[in-house]
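Researcher: Here's a chain I'd like modeled. Treat it as a single chain, no partners, no ligands.
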Amino acid sequence: MDRTAARAAHLAQTDPDVARAHAVAEYAALVAMVDALSAPDWDRPTDCTEWRVRDLVAHVAGACEEACRLPVMLRHQAVALNGVRRGDGAMVDLLCAAQIADRARLSDAELAADLRRWAAGAPDGRRRQPGLLRRVPLPAFAGLRPGTRLSYLLDVVYVRDVWLHRVDLHRATGVDLPTSTAEAEVVAQVVRDLDLEWRGPAFVLELTGRGAGSWAVGEGDPVATVTEDAVALMRLLSGRSDECVLATEGDAAAADRLRAARVVF
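Model: Modeled as a single isolated chain. Structure tokens:
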């Protein structure tokens, strides 16, 4: 096995300017996919089990609008926070519900146009957030690692969210899944997060396909090399499916722990 692979946890969080460029690329790829949908596609179920395709698109469009319009973001957060206090669910789920509810009366064509409108401004809207705000720690109910700052959402999570929803859209409808210049960074940042929380035996992770790369995960000498398709592993880590083979050379315990791991998307 490769004992020279670099630790994923030592990767830097995505730079804000790089994140903006990746967001532009991901939104362009998503808009192209949405523009290619047929009329029946909008009502198809997705791997986000409570969402149809139009719900998925409405969620992403709503997140884009929040990046462009502070009052909308604050309104959605207030609605979600009130729901958390009532015990209605998790903050992220309630935010998504607010985004979708805003678009319930739009036709499919209007929803596609709505996405196109807000996606054009979202990368710059997030990049413009001042450094002081970017350094603000997120509250515990956000469900992230203690000490996680707003910059992590702005520069990492929003881009990976769009990327994985593009995979969802492809799987739901069969529409072509364009490549983008963001994919390698999206996958690398997910593996970074995996390593930051890893408490199992050290191993080398070899990913193939989109976002291919090799990283060391865990402290100490690796006990195994685990090989998997990058998209399949991202879907596993997001909790969407367990279709991974996790081909393992060495101690199988590493693959067992990996199969149970989750990363925030």
